[in-house]
Amino acid sequence: MEYKGSCLCGNIEFKVVGEIKRFYLCHCDYCRKDTGSAHAANLFFDCGELYWKKGELDVVKFNHQGTRHSKSFCSRCGSGMPIKEGNVVIVPAGSLDRNIDRRPDAHIFMGSKGNWDHDLEYLETYKTFPVQDNG
After folding, report:
1. Predicted TM-score of the model (pTM)
2. Which of 65, 70, 91, 122 has a CA between 20 and 30 Å from the CA of residue 50?
3. CA separation (Å) from 96 to 13, 28, 64, 121?
4. Could you give the CA distance from residue 52 to residue 89 in angstroms, rounded to a whole number?
5. Which of 38, 100, 102, 40 has the alpha carbon at shortest distance from 71?
């Protein structure tokens, strides 16, 4: 399979060739910090190939010293980008330019999740940004 993706500003484009082996929603402290959200949503391609179509020089790789945690991102807009670690390609699911036919396999590092991250399926939902009534 081939998966294409890009950053928010469109400066970086990539493709990954291979099969998604795992899809995890990671709640560890590091993933929560580097996404600014409840969790990271990462696709893992064992023996996948990563090709930068444009903007490779604007990809920044950050390695969190003393840990195995690393992140790639666009130096212009900050969007998370794929990273190759050994023979595994890790792709932020939101960076893909199309939907995928796969649900996450698991939530991981639940012992680190935010204390506000529970019962979220019961919150109100909106198709777009909710309109605020200032009256």
Report:
1. 0.88
2. 65
3. 10, 22, 24, 24
4. 13
5. 40
Question: In angstroms, what is the C-alpha Rg of the chain?
Answer: 16
* Rounded Cα distance, 57 and 84, in Å: 15
CA distance 71 to 10: 19
Where helices occur in the chain by DSSP H, the ranges are: 29-35
Element (H or E) spanning 44, and its range? Answer: strand 40-46
């330019």: which residue's tokens? 97
How far, in whole angstroms, is CA 61 from its chain's centroid? 14
Token pair of 38, please? 């409840």
pLDDT digits (tens, 9 = 90+) for 70-121: 899 999 999 999 999 888 999 999 999 999 999 999 999 999 999 998 888 8
- The two beta strands, 40-46 and 88-92, are antiparallel
